[in-house]
Design a protein that fits this description.
The structure holds 2 protein chains of 2 kinds. Chain A is mainly alpha-helical. Chain A has 4 helices and 2 strands, in the order αααββα. Helix content of chain A is about 50%, strand content about 10%. The radius of gyration of chain B is 40 Å and the shape is elongated. The chains are: A mainly alpha, B alpha+beta.
Chain lengths: ~110, ~900
């Protein structure tokens, strides 16, 4: 569990995914984005649970879209980073960079297909 | 379109939080559809299942950790305690906003619970735990029972019986004896009469009590002639010795014999005497009793025994019966006496128990009526709150939730009321103690104890249940949608609600009527009692009761001489108008147990051996203001004549000489308990009946009067009719007594009028108590009737408007409204009369010269109730007749 200002790994992935997806970040796209980039299977339940936690911390916010213009159309829950979220993300990335500085970890693996 | 696997959806739906449920499922469906389109249904379904199974963990974990305070919902969450607290705050806020209703309800509960707590604490301390002794259920009293002269008598045993019990009975651990006596204590500032209990040395050990200080009486105390041990009562110890612990070993002079103080008697012992035996005033000293001194029946003591463990009362009775049979066989049971073993605990205060159960019943009814009223008020509010409840249930509040809210509101009312009620009880008990303790000794020991408080708490819970559930039940019958739309607008009452309210009113009326009838009977009986003509004029008459010590007045001649001298001296006082001598004055005239026979009138059999018998000087009747119907009073020479004159009362004369002619006849008095046995007398006068045993005595009590000069016992009264104020006279009278004998204590100063009115104190107390409860009940019932009528009036305003518009007259409307208001009253009255008829017979022992089904009382009380009921209906009904039909119809 994350302590202080540190973000847990999965939280970091989620926020990065939202940042990448911009206005199109909702459950399906977020899940697929992380799965695609990490090559790890991600469950929708974990996504929503973690998003809920980030919401509690005030790092992400959401809005519900208008129902889709078809019969019985659904509405989506679109997420975006709050100002605090952006700050936390920058902070975590900077920490990571500082920790990595001058460190050789051998051959860089390429992302999975 | 292809649907995702239903079971998986259901699982996830259950696990998900309501906030995310829709979105998660929709997101999954979206991807599932895409996967089906891309790669077929089977892999898509597998994917779906894996999503669901892997989602369950994080979702449930998240739900478990989610901070609750962020939840916004109309359905309260959090622990049961939290939501109870919420309910409580809401209830207090709601009640705070309607102070009129709240005050009325709380006051009603406080009153109801207050009087119930008071009554229960009385019952608890007098009936439920009367004996403060260890294993009190094994304590029994042993009496002798028989029918000498045909009347059933329960009394102390004959000396032979007592001796046989002490020698042979095996059923008892111990048999304790006690007697009472009045002794003169000299050595203080003034000679003083002390009330002494003469007890067998084993009595305290048998009762398992120990002295507060010092030691118990010992068998040795009985034997040693001088310096016998004595125990002091706590009160006497405090008064005479300032509670000085050094008192042990000091000597006390009683009847000119010295005793050594060996201890202070425990309070329980005093309590036993107070609670059970009511013999005389509280005892001040406890002396040892010697069985050897018991020679005649007059000496025999009261007997109390402790059964051996596992011996039943019936077994002890059987054993004593066998012993008695052997006595009879040996010719030692001439009187045909039978032993009677009875449980002490059962007999304690059985006399008071009736009154107390009646009391508890009445206050219970008052509380029920109060509850019915509050239920009614809550239901009336329920009508106005229907909209509120409908909104709440529309927002998701379950029926149980709303019921709980109502219960909590009820609890707030009842607990606050109960709290006030306990305070009220405290005051009530103080008041009753002040009011009645003088006459009703048992009231002094009443306390509010934990048992009583538990009772009160239980009572308040029950109360809350009763009056909160009625509106809750009403709620069940009003549909949400209905209340939100039409119902709330017109406010028409449901048939169910009005039925319940009317039934409640009918029940209130019935209960109030029961109380009214009871109170009416007691009041009526008390009026009978206070209207009784005592047959003499007690006002302005005082009497000094004197007891001459055996040691200084051993001879009858000395005693008579003493009384005569005192009377002669008092006659010289200007403040004394008439002075007489007697053995006793009403209501404390001695009992005379005997039958009358007359030559020539053998056909008349005397079946009432309990008579009043008095020994009087010639001036006695004049002093108390009684008068003769025929014949003459005693004269100074009567004592010296051989004719043995008697004066009988009218009742006796009427029985034997219905046509007159009593004077001059010789009568035979058979006195089985007196040494003379049978004595012949000549009737010299017939007294107009007086109430010798107090106003409540039976009307045909036979009385026999003998000349004071034929009297030989040590006790007597000097009776004086004051010329002026009696208070001024009393010190002068004492002065004259002490002029003759400076060491003689005044046993008692009697004021005849005051004693006679003390005689009716208990009936007056009963009548007063029940009347105030009945008045309370009537008031509450009237409030109920008024409330229901005015509610229905306000609900029917529209209907009335239409009726008036269609041409109904004012009087028609009034008739209609009062008529429908009277319906529950009439039903309640009929029910109440039936209940009263069934229950008033429990009052029989409290009534004087009036039947428990006295028609006049029943009719009067019902009329009062109906008239008051009509008024309670009329007032709100009249208001509604003033309705302006145009205005009402325009509101439509």
């Amino acid at each position: 569990m994350p302590k202080g200002n540190f973000l847990a790994e999965f939280e970091l992935y989620l926020m990065l995914a939202i940042a990448r997806l911009g206005d199109g970040a909702y459950g399906v796209t977020i899940r697929q984005e992380i799965e695609r980039r990490t090559g790890r299977p991600v469950s929708i339940g974990a996504v929503y649970a973690t998003l809920g936690r980030l919401g509690d911390k005030g790092l992400v916010s959401f809005r519900e879209s208008d129902p889709l213009p078809v019969q019985g159309g659904r509405s989506r829950k679109y997420f975006r980073l709050t100002a605090a979220g952006h700050k936390a993300l920058r902070h975590s990335a900077m920490m990571l960079e500082r920790m990595m500085e001058g460190l050789e970890l051998g051959a860089k693996s390429s992302p999975a297909q | 379109m292809t649907q995702p696997p239903r079971l998986a959806v259901l699982l996830l739906r259950l696990a998900l939080d309501a906030r995310d449920r829709r979105f998660v499922l929709d997101d999954l469906s979206e991807e599932y559809a895409a996967r089906v389109a891309a790669g077929g249904q089977a892999p898509a379904t597998r994917w779906y299942w894996s999503q669901v199974t892997r989602s369950l963990g994080p979702v449930l974990w998240r739900r478990a950790c989610r901070p609750r305070r962020l939840v916004i919902s109309f359905q309260p969450r959090g622990t049961a305690l939290e939501s109870l607290w919420q309910d409580l705050r809401f209830a207090v806020r709601t009640l705070w906003r309607i102070p009129g209703f709240t005050l009325t309800a709380v006051a009603t509960v406080a009153l109801g619970i207050g009087v119930n707590t008071a009554a229960f604490s009385l019952v608890s301390s007098v009936v439920l735990k009367p004996l403060p002794f260890e294993d009190a259920d094994r304590l029994v009293e042993i009496w002798a029972e028989g029918e000498p002269m045909g009347a059933q008598v329960t009394t102390t045993p004959q000396p032979e019986m007592l001796q046989a019990w002490l020698d042979r009975a095996e059923s008892f651990d111990a048999i304790g004896l006690f007697n009472e006596e009045e002794l003169t204590h000299s050595g203080g500032a003034e000679p003083e009469i002390l009330h002494a209990a003469i007890v067998s040395p084993n009595l305290m050990e048998m009762l398992r009590v120990t002295p507060r200080l010092g030691r118990e009486l010992a068998p040795a105390d009985v034997e040693s002639g001088e310096g016998q041990g004595v125990l002091l009562s706590e009160g006497f110890w405090r008064r005479r010795f300032g509670s000085d612990p050094e008192v042990l070993g000091r000597t006390l002079t009683l009847d000119e014999k010295s005793y050594v103080v060996v201890g202070i008697a425990p309070l329980e012992l005093e309590r036993l005497f107070e609670a059970r035996f009511f013999i005389g005033p509280p005892k001040q000293v406890w002396l040892p009793l010697s069985v050897a001194s018991i020679q005649t029946w007059e000496d025999t003591p009261f007997v109390i025994a402790r059964l051996k463990p596992h011996v039943a009362v019936a077994e002890a009775q059987a054993e004593l019966d066998v012993i008695q049979a052997s006595l009879t066989a040996a010719g030692l049971n001439e009187g045909g006496w039978r032993p009677l073993v009875s449980s002490t605990a059962e007999m304690v205060n059985s006399r008071l128990a009736t009154v107390l159960w009646v009391l508890l019943g009445s206050v219970g009814l008052v509380l029920l009526i109060g509850c019915a009223n509050i239920a009614n008020m809550l239901m009336a509010r329920g009508v106005t709150r229907r909209h509120e409840f409908a909104v709440r249930s529309a927002l998701g509040a379950s029926r149980a939730r709303v019921t709980r809210q109502l219960l909590v509101e009820g609890l707030v009312l009842s607990v606050v009321g109960a709290g006030l009620g306990v305070v009220l009880t405290y005051w009530t008990l103080e008041a009753t103690a002040g009011l009645a303790a003088h006459d009703i000794r048992e009231l002094r020991s009443v306390r509010i104890d934990p048992i009583v408080l538990v009772f009160t708490l239980g009572l308040s819970l029950v109360t809350a249940l009763i009056f909160a559930l009625a509106p809750a039940a009403q709620l069940q019958f009003c549909g949400t949608a209905d209340s939100l739309t039409g119902g709330a607008r017109t406010g028409t009452s449901s048939t169910y609600g009005s039925l319940v309210r009317q039934s409640l009113v009918a029940a209130e009326v019935a209960m109030a009527l029961v109380l009214l009838v009871g109170a009416g009977l007691l009041l009526n009986s008390f009026m009978h009692l206070s209207r009784v003509d005592p047959g003499f004029h007690p006002s302005g008459v005082v009497a000094l009761e004197l007891t001459l010590p055996e040691t200084r007045y051993p001879e009858t001649v000395q005693r008579r001489e003493f009384f005569r001298t005192v009377a002669d001296r008092i006659r010289l006082l200007p403040a004394a108008q008439v002075v007489g001598l007697a053995r006793g004055v009403p209501p404390d005239v001695p009992w005379l147990f005997g039958t009358v026979e007359i030559d020539g009138r053998e056909d008349v059999v005397d079946t009432s051996p309990l008579k009043a018998g008095n020994w009087i000087s010639p001036e006695y009747f004049g002093t108390i203001g009684a008068s003769l119907r025929e014949g003459r009073e005693f004269t100074a020479i009567d004592s010296r004549s051989d004719a043995a004159p008697v004066i009988v009362n009218e009742s006796l004369a009427r029985r034997f000489w219905p046509d007159g002619g009593a004077v001059g006849t010789r009568i035979r008095l058979e006195l089985p308990f007196q040494s003379e046995g049978v004595v012949e007398h000549t009737v010299v006068g017939v007294l107009r009946d007086i109430k010798a045993f107090g106003l409540g005595d039976e009307p045909d009590r036979m009385q026999v009067y003998f000349p004071f000069d034929s009297y030989s016992a040590r006790e007597g009264v000097v009776v004086v009719r004051a010329a002026g104020d009696t208070d001024d006279l009393i010190p002068q009278l004492k002065e004259q007594v002490w002029a003759v004998d400076p060491n003689l204590p005044i046993t008692r100063v009697i004021r005849l009028d005051r004693d006679l009115s003390a005689n009716i104190a208990r009936p007056r107390f009963n009548a007063l108590l029940l009347s105030s409860f009945a008045a309370l009940a009537l008031l509450l019932a009237v409030i109920g009737v008024y409330g229901v009528t005015s509610l229905s009036a306000s609900q029917r305003t529209r209907e009335i408007g239409v009726r008036v518009a269609l041409g109904a007259q004012r009087s028609d409307i009034l008739k209609l409204m009062v008529g429908s208001g009277m319906k529950p009253i009439a039903i309640g009255a009929v029910l109440g009369l039936a209940l009263s008829y069934a229950f008033t017979r429990f009052l029989r022992s409290l009534l004087f010269e009036i039947e428990p089904t006295d028609v006049l009382t029943f009719v009067t009380v019902t009329l009062v109730l109906v008239v008051v009921g009509v008024l309670a209906c009329y007032v709100p009904s009249r208001r509604v007749t003033a309705v302006d039909p145009i205005g009402v119809l325009r509101q439509e």
